Amino acid sequence: MLVHGLGLSGRYFVPLARRLAANGATVLVPDLPGNARSRTTTRRMPDVVRAADALAHWHRQLAPGPSTLVANSVGCQVAAALVARHPNLVNRLVLLGPALTPRASVWRQSGQLLADAFGEPPSLLAVAAADYLLTGPLRFATSLRHALRDGAGAFEDHLTQVGVPTLVVRGAKDTIASEAWTRRLARLVADGRTAEVPDAAHAAHYSAPDAVARLIETFAKETP
Q: 134 is in which domain, residue-wise?
């Protein structure tokens, strides 16, 4: 199951989803409640925990057993909350470019996001722009406020409750998730390790889907 980032949809996971599905995996790519094409499913943007609970409910309807959960950016906060609250639904966790870094200001993180945009493919920026327009500025701002509050403490607390094998991945050119940050998160979980994708930025799953798919497939075969 692939979980998107702030204000986006599952569309930017399509290259990775196709690559994983080509090797026989069943891939679920939801839009979180209130985001993009699912913006009308809720009157108010849910906070991170409520989004995780909604995702867990959706997973139970579609998947017969535990899944490998793959999340990007702020979606990593939702994924961590889901594993902490519904551990029976997940057998492995992959965090791609986890955000947000605690104690960093909104302006600093906005600057990092802007810098990262220069390292992403133009086609990704077009997808992101369309999704942001669908989500809308008010819902985006509300989601950002929830994410900042969760990132200030709950995110790391949730990770300390993660007992499944966890892979934390960053693109080598990611200006948002630093190497030090990804290593810190890998140390918080019970069984964590890190990996880096060369020549990729924050959305490595979009710009380098083959490399990310290989990492996930190799990780899925490892013995915990």
A: 2-221
